[in-house]
Amino acid sequence: MANWGGAPTNSSKCGCAIQNRCDMSNDQCNCHRDDGMWRVDAGYLDDKRYLPVKQVPVRDVDNSHEEVYLTVKPMECYGVVTSGQPTEKCFCSLHAEVKGSTKAGPLLLQLPDLIYGQGHNDVWIDDGNQKRKVTDVYPQFFNTRIRRQILPSSVAHNKSPDCVRVLQNCPVDCERLAKLKYASMSLSTNITNAGVQKALGQVMCENAGVTIPPPGSRIVAFYKTAPGCDSSGSSTYFHPDDTSICCKEFILPFSRQPFNVFNEKCSPNVDISTIFG
Q1: pLDDT in tens, 33-52
Q2: Last residue in a domain, options 42, 75, 108
Q3: What are the DSSP calls for 104-121, one per residue?
Q4: What is the pTM of this model?
Q5: Which stretch of 27-36, 74-83, 169-178, 179-188 has the lowest confidence by average pLDDT?
Q6: Are 92 and 70 in the same domain?
Q7: Are residues 133 and 181 in the same domain?
């Protein structure tokens, strides 16, 4: 076969070309592009004449910067067997960075939960009101450029197959979700929060509930899987950016309750898209 998953047999293409969603529109596969970034091609091989897969020849990896990791997953049946109710959860959120630590600092924003079903790219989004296919909400979800790739070898092998899949996809999908939801905004962009229009930075400071003095704390995206799979970490911590936030705590005069206010002067014209590349 001269093709990859998701493309017709011997088409010399990958699934992204068939779906018109390769990283670059003129490419036949994402991994054809030699630009020093990890790229992914994935899809089903459904030509029964060539199943099960026993050998995968790889060419054009003779340069020092070219490297490939392959995963051939178990065969699946069509129909009801590969579809079902969503199972494992992935929780995504934005936090203020704790200097010198990769742990999550004060919570700034909680993103909708991601829920994984049983089939390929069977991902749902739960905003607290309803569950919908993630591609119904964000049609370009799986075509969204990412900077992080979780290799199967980096996931603990003593986990269930469902957990292995979630642990491999959750960090990447959190980056995708945060990028699609917030990358076009600045901290001064007004959003609707509990029915009230507020600046994104103000919502973050109220959620943080602590003072973040100048020069501010960097904003990072974190992921956490459900207790059954037991993993958490940052999707963006290792990618340098200048996106920081400052919050100042005031005591309200009558109620004497603390109230956090976004300090826009501390981080003027901050482009939140720099978090996600």
Answers
A1: 877 788 888 888 877 777 77
A2: 75
A3: EEEEEEEPPEEEE-SSTT
A4: 0.63
A5: 74-83
A6: no
A7: yes
